[in-house]
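pipeline/complex-builder :: batch 7 item 3
reading input block
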Amino acid sequence: MNRLLKGPARAIGALIAGFLIFAGLLTASPASAADADPSTFAYTIAGTLQQDDTPITGVTIIASKDAEKFETKSDEFGEWTIMVPTDGIWKVELDTTTIPKEFNLANKDGAVNEADLSQTDFAAVLFKFGTDVVVKQSFTDQLLVRVFAGFNFGLMLAIAAIGITLIYGTTGLNNFAHGEMVTLGAMMMWLFYSFFQWNILVAGLVAVAAVTAFGWAQDAGIWKPLRKRRLGLNQMMIVSIGFGIVARYLILLFFAGDTKDISGAATVIQLGPIFTSDVTLVSMVISVLALLGVAYFLTRTRIGKATRAVSDNSSLAASTGIDVERIIRIVWVVAAALTGLAGVLYGLQFQGNWSMGYDILLLLFAAVTLGGLGAPLGAAVGALIIGMVVEVSTLFMPSELKYVSALLILIVILVVRPQGVLGKKQRIG
Amino acid sequence: MDIIQILSLALNELVAPMTVGYILCAIGLAVHFGFTGLLNFGQAAFAALGAYGYGYAVLVFGWDLWGAILFGLICAMAFAALLGIPTLRLRADYLAIVTIAASQALRFTVGSSTAAPITGGSAGQSQFGESFYALNPFPEGEYNLGTVTLTNLELWMRVVAWGLVAIAALFVFALTRSPWGRVLKGIREDEDAVRALGKNVFAYKLQALVIGGSIAAFGGMVFVMSSQANEPTNWGTNFTFITWTILLLGGAATILGPIVGGMVFFALLTLIESFLEILVNAGLLPFLLIEQVAQIRFLLVGLILMLLVIFRPQGFFGNKKEMQFNG
C-alpha cells in the first residue's frame, strides 16, 4: 500500500470513529428508550387510546401478521404495547366490542390500522376517537392549502438542494450522502431542543453548527483525499452512496428508529382557509432569508464570485489565482450549514426519523435537476416547483403516491431537457 | 451458540436461495456495469418486476410455471426498454439518478393501496410457488449435507437456484467472448471510439440493459420463491446497494466475481452478526442492543462499498485496468 492510499483510509477511520464517539457520548440513553420492556420479542408496537384527553381503558388491541396474532389491553392511561417477534407490516386492530359506550371512533373504518416494522423495531399506531373534524372545503380552498404547503415544503427543499448543487458545481460530485445531513440536523435539533430542553434558538444554532462541522469533517476526511487521489467522479458517487448508508445506519443505531417529535409547543394560526402555526411561518421566513443570503453571497461577495468561477471552470479559476481547494472547503461548510438548517426546520414542522433525509434525497435531486445541475438559483426554483407538485398532486391522486409524481418529473426532465430549466447546455456533456 | 453452529449457519447462508437471488442480480449488473459501463442503480426494480410478474401470472391468470416465468421476464424486459430508450443517451451519473428514481417510484407504486388489486399493496403476494414445488423430484425426507440439514423442497429450491446461476454465468461468459461482447467492452472503455467504428452504441447498450435486467428478473423470482412471500419492502434501494457491493467485492468485469462475491458477502455478514450477538449476549458491548445487531449489517454494506471503490475497485478477481469507471 503506497502513501497515497493510507491517507484516506486513516481519515475515514478517524471520521467514523469520531462520529461514533461523538454520538455515543451524547446519546447514551435515547437509543434504548423505546425498548425498555424486557420482552423476548424484538419489535414493539405501541400507542395511546384517548378521546378529548380522556384515556380509554380496557380496549383489546390485536396485532396480526399472516397466522401470527398477539393481543393486549389498554391500561388505565389508555396506553398499550404489543411486542411482536418479526419485522414486516403488522395489521393492528381494535376490538370494537370492548370500547366503552361513552367513547366512539372518529370514523367507522378507523378500528384497523397498520404498523410498518419493516425498517425499524418500533412503531406507534394511532386510533382516532371523538368527532372527526372533517370540514368540507371548496376546491379553491383545498388548492390554496396545498399551494401553501407546497411553498413551505419547497422552501425547505430549496435550502438543502442548493447545498447539493453547490457541491456538484464545484467538485462534480453527485452527493448521495446529502440526505443524511438533513437527518442529522433534525436529530441534533431533537437532542438539544426536545431531549435536553434547550432554548429553541440556541438548540437550532447548535444543531446547524453540528451539521456544519460534520460537513467540514466529511470534506477534510473523505472527499479532499479522494480528490487528491484523482478518483473518478462516478467512483466518488458510489463512495457517497456507501458513506450515506454508513451515516444513515449510525444515526439509526444511536437515535433508534422511532419518530421523534421535535415540534414542541406551536400556536395554530389561521390565514383564510389555511391552518398553520407560528413555527411554520417563522421557518418560512428563515428559509427565505437563507435563500436571499445565499444569493447575496454568490453574486456580491468575493468568495461567492470565486465559487461561481470554480463552478464554471475550475482550472481557469485556479489559473487566475483562486485557491480552488479553499473554495471547495468553504462550499462544503456553507452547503452543510444550509442542509442542516433544512433538517432543523423540517424536523420542527414534520417530526423526524432516521431515514427522513434519505426519503427526500431523490426529491432534492429532482429539484436540482429541474433547475439545472450546478445552477444554485435554478435549484431553488426547481425545489419550489417540486414541493408544489408533491403537495398539489395529492388533490388529484392518492397521497401515498405523492413522491412518485416528483420522481416521474425527475425522469422526464432528465430525458427531455437534461440541462434543466435554468442550466447551461454545456454541463450535460 | 457455539462456533460449529455459527459456521454451519454461515455455510447455510452461502447456498441459501436469498443469496442466489442477489447473485443472479449481481450477474445481471455485471452485464450492465462490468461489461458495458452502465451505472444502473435500479437493479431492485428489475428483480421486483420478475417476482411480481411471476406472482401476478400465477395468482391472477392462473398460469403454469413456464408461462408465469415468461411473464415475469417480459415485465422486466419491457421495463428495461421503457427505461433504456429515453435514458441511455444520458451521461453515466444521470443514468444512475434516473434508474434509482425509477426503482423507487416503482416500489412506492406497487406497495400503495391504489395498486393493491394488482400487486397486493403493502402486504404483497404470497403462496404462488405450488407449481414450482410440484416439480420437485426429490423424495420426501431430510437431506443431510455436511453441517446443514434440508427438507426435500429446500434441496429442490437450492438445486434449481444454483442451476440458474450456472446457466447465467455460462451465458454471460459466452456473451462476453463473442464479438457482441467485445463491442460492449469497447463501449465501456470509449464510447466515441466504438461509435466511430460505425457501431450503434445505443442499440448495444439497450440490449445489455435488457439482458442484464432479465437475469435480475430470475434473481427476483428465486429471491421470493423460497419463502413464497413477495413484499414491496424487499425491493428498496438497500437491495440494489447490496447487489452492487457483491458485484464490486467479487470483481465487476468478471464471471466468477458476482458468484464468489455473493457467497463471501453473506457468509461474512452472518459470521460478523453471530459474533456480535455472542459479544452482546456476554455483555461485552453494553452500548449495543441485541436487535440492533441486524442494523450493523447495512452499516457494513456501506462501509464495504466505500472501501472497495476506493481501494480495490477491481474486487477479488478483476483486472484493475478494466475498472476505470469512465467519466
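note: The radius of gyration of chain B is 20 Å.
queue -> next item
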